[in-house]
Specification:
Order of helices and strands: HEEEEHEEHEH
Structural class: alpha+beta
CATH architecture: Beta Barrel
Number of strands: 7
Shape: elongated
Largest sheet: 5 strands, mixed, barrel
Radius of gyration: 25 Å
Length: 181
């Protein structure tokens, strides 16, 4: 194939533009990916399997773990549900008195209808508590509105069901979607 002078000039011009764009892009100032490091907050109290109190800006703030729902413990508003005490105890083991990162979800609301902050709760070692509670069978995947980890939480719940972990065991009769093998 023979290139005409016109086609050759267009090809060379295009190559020069691409090279220049790459050089400019490489040396141009970039926005930082992380604007600031998230702060650590101390867990003041574990209310139940999916709600904690944290020390935040010199006050105590209620935080609902985003994307999960743990069975209820006895309270004035709702009766105790099967595995509620166990879920609450596991959350206490994981979080009570510890420092955590509270990360909002860009797809979700900042607060729920009760005024609690909706957050992913991470330990400094990177463990996502919300996911861990589902994975171990102490909480359900709870989709009130879309959130980033919906598919991952759904997968973890299916794994816990198949293994009959925690609330998916024989004690509570929550196990109703997975067929016997």
């Amino acid at each position: 194939m023979i290139l005409t002078k016109s086609k050759l000039n267009k090809s060379v011009s295009l190559a020069i533009i691409i090279i220049l764009a790459g050089i400019i892009g490489y040396f141009a100032p970039h926005k930082p990916i992380i604007k600031q490091a998230p702060a650590l907050y101390k867990v003041a109290e574990v209310i139940d399997g999916d709600t904690i109190k944290v020390e935040l800006n010199n006050k105590i703030e209620l935080v609902r773990l985003l994307g999960i729902d743990a069975p209820e413990v006895p309270n004035p508003y709702k009766p105790e549900e099967c595995f509620g005490k166990e879920a609450s105890q596991r959350t206490k083991e994981l979080l009570e008195g510890k420092y955590v990162y509270l990360i909002p979800d860009p797809l979700s609301s900042n607060r729920d209808k009760y005024g609690r902050l909706l957050r992913y709760v991470f330990l400094p070692n990177g463990l996502l508590i919300n996911a861990e509670l589902i994975k171990e069978g102490y909480a359900f995947n709870y989709i009130y509105e879309p959130f980033q980890f919906m598919k991952q939480f759904d997968y973890l719940e299916k794994q816990a069901k198949e293994k009959r972990l925690g609330l998916w065991g024989t004690k509570c009769n929550y196990y109703f979607e997975v067929k016997e093998k």
